[in-house]
Specification:
- With about 280 residues, this protein is an alpha/beta fold.
- The protein is about 45% helix and about 10% strand.
- Helix 1 packs parallel to helix 10 and helix 2 crosses helix 10.
- The radius of gyration is 23 Å and the shape is globular.
Length: about 280
């Protein structure tokens, strides 16, 4: 598929929604296999700002149990964490048996934004590139399934998404000064990504590139690849039956007048027939 997806070549919404729901049903099956077999899965989502990582994560986790599948999106390190071994703060978020962890950005921050924005030294960056393949090999040798996805977007599409977020009240929170500065450092980020791939795109821990000019295609392609890469099987669930409700013992519900009930906003809307607000996602 070409990186630049024209509007006429974008995935139709109806086809996208049908296939997404089918894939999400399979994700639930994969989750049940991981839970029942005590497997551990780590999925890393990396890529440029506004490349579609968050939207993909949202679709992956939509029907999964938050007790099994959890998103890890760490804030800036504390002063104490800055003095630790770099990988240390990520280790505590790795999955135990029967768990999935999805990293919305990960230890690869050091190879990207920290490198470009000079948040780390040259020596720290070089040490990361040397240690990262060893660290990931240790995870996999211990039985963790590791999947790495790089969401690729063009400079023109990234700028379009940034522009839409500036005026979109629903997405304005996604923008920071660091995000906007990345527009002026496109080539620096490109060089940093290329160097990162040279050292960390290994045969045992490959980077899987997701072309994300079309977000719908990107989500479908990424989820389908993840499902195909995990050797799960459908787990037969125990049959559940509703127990018979026992006869009443005389309990009387507390008088509603003694409780504070939220106003019936939905009822007011139904009376007014007020359906004026329609949100259109400017990014598709």
């Amino acid at each position: 598929m070409n990186a630049m997806a024209s509007k006429s070549n974008r995935m139709p919404k109806d086809l996208y929604e049908i296939e997404l729901l089918r894939l999400q049903a399979e994700l639930v099956q994969m989750q049940e296999w991981i839970r029942s077999e005590g497997q551990r899965l780590v999925v890393i989502f990396e890529g440029r700002d506004a490349a579609g990582k968050g939207g993909a994560i949202k679709r992956v986790t939509e029907y999964l149990s938050p007790r099994v599948a959890q998103v890890v999106a760490l804030p800036e390190p504390t002063e104490r964490q800055r003095t630790q071994w770099y990988f240390q703060r990520y280790i505590e978020h790795l999955p135990a048996a029967g768990e999935i962890r999805l990293f919305d950005r990960s230890w690869y921050n050091r190879a990207g934004v920290e490198r470009v924005m000079k948040y780390c030294t040259t020596q720290e960056h070089r040490r990361f590139l040397q240690q990262c393949p060893i660290f990931e090999r240790m995870l996999m040798e211990d039985g963790i399934m590791l999947r790495k996805y790089w969401f690729s977007v063009s400079d023109a599409e990234q700028e379009r998404r940034f522009a839409s977020r500036i005026t979109d009240p629903m997405r304005r929170w996604k923008l920071s000064s660091t995000d906007l500065e990345s527009l002026t450092k496109w080539e620096e980020y490109s060089r940093a990504k290329d160097e990162m791939f040279v050292h960390t795109d290994t045969e045992e821990s490959r980077w899987n590139v997701v072309e994300s000019e079309d977000k719908k295609r990107a989500r479908i392609n990424m989820i389908a690849h993840l499902l195909n890469s995990v050797p799960y099987r459908h787990v037969k669930r125990p049959e559940l039956k509703l127990p018979p409700r026992p006869p009443s013992t005389g309990y009387q519900r507390t008088d509603r007048a003694l409780q504070y009930e939220v106003p019936d906003h939905a009822g007011e809307l139904m009376k007014k027939g007020d359906h004026r607000f329609v949100y259109q996602d400017p990014e598709g």
